[in-house]
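pasting input
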Amino acid sequence: MEAAPKAFGHFKDVRQEFRLPDQNDFVAIENISFDLKAGSLVSLLGPSGCGKTTFLKIAGGLIAASSGTIQINGEDVNEPQADFGMAFQQPNLMPWRTVLKNVLFPMELRNDTGPRVRQRAVDLLALVGLQGFEEAYPSQLSGGMQQRVALCRALVHEPKLLLMDEPFGALDELTRMEMQDLLLDIRAKTNATIMFVTHSIAEAVYLSDVVVVFSKRPAVIADYIDVPLPYPRTAEIRYSAAFTELEHRAGRALGITR
Amino acid sequence: MMSSVRRLIYPLAGFVAIVIAWQGYVDLAHVSTIVLPSPMDILRASWQRYDLLLRETLPTTLESVYGFALAVIIGIPLAVCVANSRILNLSLYPILIATQSVPKVAVAPIILVWFGLGMQSKLAIAFLVAFFPIVVDTATGLHATPSGLMELARSLRASRWQTFWKVQFPAALPFIFSGAKVAVTLAVIGAVIGEFVGSTNGLGNLLLSANSQLDGPLAWAALVWLSVLGMLLFLAVALAERILMPWAGAGHQH
């Protein structure tokens, strides 16, 4: 193997075809190649049904790509890795577990729920503003609170790579903006590398170091946008000229602004 | 708060109205107690023949409870096997569904031949009628695990055993309990069918013999006690559900 620059994640010529019963094969992802820098937050932005979620699942090892190279941390990915954390569009909490036990679920699967781990879970819940809700059941929480619990669960085993599939998509606008700031806070504290799927241009630009714009199906990279805005990002940045310019560039790549 | 009081008052008022109408009809039309005893006649018989009714309630209760318990003990593991093995699912499940359409009343005489007049035959019939709802609902529940939870388990590299025990089974609990609630009332019916076909004791037997002696109030009292037995067993399962699934009772606060 050649001595490539040491990227944390490396995707080369990733292609995905699906075979549907009684139909022709269709190509969901034509060809995606990019590198993921350690500690960066990269958004995958694209129209609905463009294959960005499929790509995220390929990167997470949940789906096998038809062809191409997927390397994270120097390892080929063909199944979920122990140091991955995932958050989905739905919180996917278990209604029979309390908030704390939902957060501890990944550790329970590893038979590692000692006092230190419990304390970490409690601290994470406090970090997302859910102190005092440890013993509540998910049905007693609002959608935004449930998504925070899911975020804690994705972080409890201190993953190196956090994969997020439109985790704030089902939330109202205000809660969504709150969650975006929360994610940036958490990211500053944990230094995790994050891949974030979204179809919101503003969300992608606000959160990311890099926005990878996916074209319509079959997906290719329509644009690869470095976001030079400094962190920590604040609400004011959303109204800056630089922010708007980046939004326009992403919009052009999506083919919705001229 | 108001609505829970109302939920109690309305059915209670309906019940009282029916009892008064019944009492009035029997009194005014001078209906024979053989044909239709009045609520007061039934209450009096329940009171005066208290020890007899209680003695006959015991075997019926045991037959129902044992039959139900056996259905749970055999039914749930069988459903787990059917849900987890494609081969078992394909080979057994259709047979299970097909045998469910066999009328259990028609099987009762045959079971009596196999197990005799004692408790075993009633237990077997109670088991038979309680068995199907438990198997079918458990298997349905195990197949109905939300796909998001299955994906979560996979993303966390949960083993097959962990996935079953920590995700699929608890997710199926509401289905299992709804099957169990149906099954426990069916178990009482099964026990009574068994007693009708052939037995020497039990509320079903008492009902038959009181009927043949034209003792309407006692026959009706046995019927009332049977209904109460069914309701109490149902409540016991509902209580177990509350205790084992505390999250289901947790209210929505947002």
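fyi Chain B touches chain A through 26 residues (CB under 8 Å).
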